[in-house]
Amino acid sequence: MGIVEKDAKKKRIYRNVQGIVLGVIGVAGILAVTMIAPNVFQAIPKLMGDKYKFAYRAKTVAGRLAQKGLVRFVERHGKKFVEITEKGRCQLLFEEQRALLGHHRPLRWDKRWRLVMFDIPEKRRKVRDRLRGYMHQFGFLRLQDSAWIFPYDCEDVVALVKAELSTGSSVLYAVIESIENDSWIKKHFSLK
Question: Under 8 Å CB-to-CB from 61, ≥6 apart: which residues?
Answer without folding.
Answer: 14, 17, 18, 21
